[in-house]
Amino acid sequence: xxxxxRAPDPESVExxxxxxxxIVGQLGGxxxxxxxxxxxxxxGVSRLRAVTARLSDAELKVKTLVESSDGDFILDDFDE
Amino acid sequence: xxxxxxxxxxxxxxxxxxxxxxDPLFALANAPFEEVQRQSAIEASAEVQVGAPVDAPGETPAxxxxxxxxxxxAREVLQGAFPRLWVRGEISDFKRHRNGHWYFCLGDGGAQVxxxxxxxxxxxxxxxxxxxxxxxxLGQLTVYPARGDMQLVVTGMEAExxxxxxxxxxxxxxxLEKDGLLAPGRKRALPRYPRxxxxxxxxxxxxxxxxxxxxxRRSPGIEIVVVPAAVQxxxxxDELCAALESLARWGDADVAIVGRGGGGRDDLRAFNDERxxxxxxxxxxxxISAVGHEIDTTICDLVADLRAATPSAAAEAAVPLRSDxxxxxxxxxxxxxxxxxxxxDAARDQAVGLRERAATAMMRSIxxxxxxxxxxxxxxxALSPLATLARGFAVALSADxxxxxxxxxxxxxxxxDLVLRDGRVTARAEEIRIVGAG
Lengths: 80, 438
Hints:
- The structure holds two protein chains of two kinds.
- By secondary structure, chain A is an alpha+beta fold.
- Chain A contains two helices and two strands.
- Helix content of chain B is 40%, strand content 20%.
- Chain B has helices spanning 17-29, 33-47, 67-81, 163-178, 206-218, 236-250, 274-281, 299-303, 311-318, 322-383, 385-390; strands spanning 85-96, 102-108, 111-117, 134-144, 149-159, 196-201, 223-228, 255-259, 287-290, 306-308, 395-397, 415-420, 423-428.
- In chain B, the strands form three sheets. A five-stranded mixed beta barrel of chain B has the order 1-2-3-5-4. Chain B has a five-stranded parallel beta sheet with strand order 7-6-8-9-10.
- In chain B, strand 9 (287-290), helix 8 and strand 10 form a beta-alpha-beta unit.
- Chain B starts with 16 loop residues before the first helix and ends in a 10-residue tail after the last strand.
- The relative contact order of chain B is 0.06.
- Strand 1 of chain A pairs parallel with strand 7 of chain B.
């Protein structure tokens, strides 16, 4: 399995939780319109769902990084 | 007898001007000693009668041997007689020659021996020794034939109290410091929820097993990528550098752990290697060092963003506890609900407030109108013709309901109504007398 180059994964737990914190912060602030607040809430709920689903993945994956001669990287299964 | 091949070792192997000059002599000197002996014997037998005793080489002026043969023979005898030995003494007269070799004397009180470390052997010695340092040097005793000096060709060295390693570390640290790699401001924070953790270590060691075990216990669903490298032995620095450089090029991990399980002090060498430390510092992601040695701090420990005592501790620092993450998500869920409820409550409060203000305003408006109506009503009442009737006057209405306020509006003989305070009276006009104009 060849992996993509380094880019922030928008679905990562880190990114999701950071966005959730921002949403809560915005919602807690003054001067937000109810429409906007409800939209933020909706977004927050769907992110909560996604991040919880992500965490329910109970398998630990262990791979070995292998660099091929042409400089490509491959993740092989690691023999534990 | 098997003829021995002439061998040239030690200083004689290093080509220089003196060597070139002496080469023809060496050609002779390098003829095996036995051959020289035999040659001498033949020469002797040619001169002396058969059966007469033969002088050994060097025994008489006639059999004197050249200096080159003497030195070369001494060299071979010395090298044959002495295996490589560890020799203890104090360093003096240390010189780093232009050609890269180190020259110095090793001595103790009354004795001294000249020593050399060829430049190619220097990488096996952590750092050049200091003047006056007590060291143990591993060397082969030999003779430098060009000068007839006895010298120790040193290939290994250890100082008391690990002095050379310490010195090498100090020098490396000074260079790393100068390049800013030890600055506290350089330390990066670890990601709180890494998705993928790279572990640079031996794939067969205890370290990787510990990291996997801790990660599995704390936060399944995470990915661990092993970047294999030897962590001890001579190849460890090179392998660690290569692994770290690969990881830096790949870059697709959120945090890295570099380390090994427990081990002796000697095993720390690779993690005190300046090149390894620099490769570690060049990683694009935060890195935890886990060298598994509580007493000694390695250079890698100082360059890493976080130092963990063991690989297990590194894994605990890198991998969040799943229950903690779930608790945090729970708290966020609550906070989210509360925050939106607050917004809704605020909007409702605003609506209620507005309604109340509207109601109050409406009431006031009604009040105002009522008051005005009453005033007007009073005035209207004052002006009402009915009020006049109340005072005893009457109003005449024609049959078709018109008010007849003038005599000219009546027709004699016709009926009309008189409207009084409490009713009507039907009357008839008998006679109409008009007095003056309207």
